[in-house]
Amino acid sequence: MIYLDYAATTPMHPQVIRDMTAAMAVYGNPSSIHQAGRAARKLVDDARRTLAQTIGAKENEIIFTSGGTEADNTAIFGVAYANQHKGKHIITSQIEHHAVLHACEQLEREGFSITYLPVDSTGCVRVQDVKEALHDDTILVTIMLGNNEVGTIQPIAEISELLQMHQAVMHTDAVQAYGMISIDVNDLQVDYLSVSSHKINGPKGIGFLYQRTNAPLQPLLYGGQQERKRRATTENVPAIVGFATASTLTSDRDVYERYKQQMQKTWQDAQLSFTINGAHTLPHILNVSFTGVNIEALLVNLDMAGICASSGSACTAGAVDPSHVLVAMYGADSDKLHNSVRFSFGYGLTAAQVQEAAVTIANVVQRLVNL
């Protein structure tokens, strides 16, 4: 098997597994004041410090969550409820992860007004569109840092600059970008930032939300006083430790860019007709449209050939739900909705595997085109 779906999830790094296994022996509750509890608390505190440093944040600005979805939801609902006395207008984009889109849709049902900004053909939000969408009652702008399907990096710092003299606060979903590009919350000028561990060779079920000091946030969970009363529930110590370890591992960003070029050259040599979706993209994501190929047939054939890839389309009971990202980029009638596939790279992948995969993909595409 050649795994080319790292944007969906990544294998845990061996060092992460070792550190988590050791942490499992530290069984105390981090909220307990006795020595067993203090031992667990030290692991959590050390991990929080490590993770904060990766984005230029303060330790007390990191809130541990169960992953990216909870981090996004905590930011969006937390700000909406905390600031609804100032207004009920929120700005987002049409290409956000469903953790953001569905949260916004729920807030619409609760009486909030949501502006879903379009993107250009490269999948990029226009800063001018954000500026024009800002109202006096806008309380939140939430736009992802790097798109999970086509990889396009958004102009978050420029968008945040618009809000410096406005009451609205800024949240960015950095789940796909974290670990792949340099992130500093002060350079980006964001108030909230979401991250998930399983995208960077850490465990599933753990993530964090960065909350800038004094930024408004109403908790979604009620119970104990964990996370400075911002997220009740006993901390998942082994997962937190594994997350911190994963955050210290170096990602081969330049290598992934070379993998992209390697695959494209192989397809060009094979005289395939293809186009790349997105521009100014994250280093590990390559979204490709193969002319004349049905994506479902392609994915099935690739899987049979031992190659794991993914599409923006979700197929259930024979019905195709086109990628909302590609619809936003190209329109509902574009052929690219039905012939685009995402390949993504990560830890453990070799140049030899990438070459083997590229050749196999070329053979499969040629066979499908000639059917």
From TrEMBL:
<protein>
    <recommendedName>
        <fullName>cysteine desulfurase</fullName>
        <ecNumber>2.8.1.7</ecNumber>
    </recommendedName>
</protein>
<dbReference type="Pfam" id="PF00266">
    <property type="entry name" value="Aminotran_5"/>
</dbReference>
<keyword id="KW-0479">Metal-binding</keyword>
<dbReference type="InterPro" id="IPR016454">
    <property type="entry name" value="Cysteine_dSase"/>
</dbReference>
<feature type="domain" description="Aminotransferase class V">
    <location>
        <begin position="2"/>
        <end position="355"/>
    </location>
</feature>
<dbReference type="InterPro" id="IPR015424">
    <property type="entry name" value="PyrdxlP-dep_Trfase"/>
</dbReference>
<dbReference type="InterPro" id="IPR000192">
    <property type="entry name" value="Aminotrans_V_dom"/>
</dbReference>
<dbReference type="InterPro" id="IPR015422">
    <property type="entry name" value="PyrdxlP-dep_Trfase_small"/>
</dbReference>
<dbReference type="InterPro" id="IPR020578">
    <property type="entry name" value="Aminotrans_V_PyrdxlP_BS"/>
</dbReference>
<keyword id="KW-0808">Transferase</keyword>
<dbReference type="GO" id="GO:0031071">
    <property type="term" value="F:cysteine desulfurase activity"/>
</dbReference>
<keyword id="KW-0663">Pyridoxal phosphate</keyword>
<comment type="similarity">
    <text>Belongs to the class-V pyridoxal-phosphate-dependent aminotransferase family. NifS/IscS subfamily.</text>
</comment>
<keyword id="KW-0408">Iron</keyword>
<dbReference type="GO" id="GO:0046872">
    <property type="term" value="F:metal ion binding"/>
</dbReference>
<dbReference type="InterPro" id="IPR015421">
    <property type="entry name" value="PyrdxlP-dep_Trfase_major"/>
</dbReference>
<keyword id="KW-0411">Iron-sulfur</keyword>
<dbReference type="GO" id="GO:0051536">
    <property type="term" value="F:iron-sulfur cluster binding"/>
</dbReference>
